[in-house]
Design brief:
A hairpin with a 2-residue loop joins strand 3 and strand 4. Helix content is 53%, strand content 24%. Helix 4 runs antiparallel to helix 6. Strands 1-2-4-3 form a four-stranded antiparallel sheet. The chain is rod-shaped and about 120 Å long. It has helices at 4-29, 37-58, 64-82, 87-101, 121-125, 141-153; strands spanning 104-113, 128-139, 159-169, 172-184. The protein starts with a helix and ends with a strand. It has 188 residues and is α+β, with helices and mostly antiparallel strands. It contains six helices and four strands. It has a domain at 84-184: Ribosomal protein S6/Translation elongation factor EF1B (Alpha-Beta Plaits, 2-Layer Sandwich).
Length: 188
């Protein structure tokens, strides 16, 4: 039969050791090393806010591998559909926009610059030539606003560089506009 005194002694040592470990755990819980429940909650809230902020920062990057081919296709479509190949297409589109809005165009001059001067590397990369357009137009305020709005919404790409107001006679406004567009160059 086992010795009951020896077992009792081992049991007392084990219980004493557990009490010492419990006392150390309670002391550590209330010590400045761990902090109070309030400070732990604050730290947890701060870490949660940082996690949410980091998640919002990386959100636009999700699916980037799928967005890049879509963006490339959209760029190709833009260059294909928004730039004319011939000056006559630009002239016809500008005349149609003017007729649709009721504005009278006069003194329209077109000048084309080749990008061989390497002034814009992005234009050179897609084989575009810059075309500047100077036009005098007249119409009432509403017609002029419709014309400018239709330029901005046109299928062809027009960039309004400047607008100079001329005279105003009997409700007719005269403007001098300086526009830019780009023509696709034909590879030979």
């Amino acid at each position: 039969m086992p010795d009951l005194r020896q077992t009792r002694q081992k049991l007392k040592i084990a219980i004493g050791s557990l009490l010492v470990v419990d006392a150390a755990a309670v002391a550590l819980l209330f010590s400045p090393l761990i902090g109070s429940q309030h400070s732990r909650d604050e730290q947890m809230n701060q870490l949660w806010k940082e996690l949410q902020q980091k998640t919002r920062q990386v959100e636009p990057l999700r699916g980037l591998d799928k967005k890049i081919p879509i963006a490339k296709q959209q760029i190709d479509d833009f260059y294909q559909n928004r730039f004319a190949s011939e000056t006559s297409t630009v002239s016809a589109d500008l005349g149609k926009l003017a007729a649709d809005s009721g504005v009278k165009l006069a003194g329209v001059t077109y000048s084309q610059k080749n990008t061989d001067d390497k002034e814009n590397a992005n234009i050179e990369a897609v084989d575009l030539d810059r075309m500047t357009i100077d036009a005098d137009l007249s119409g009432d305020y509403l017609q002029v606003m419709h014309f400018i709005n239709s330029l901005e919404r046109s299928r062809l790409f027009f960039l309004v560089d400047s607008v100079q107001i001329g005279s105003d006679q009997g409700g007719i406004i005269k403007l001098r506009m300086h526009l830019e567009t780009y023509l696709k160059t034909t590879s030979t």
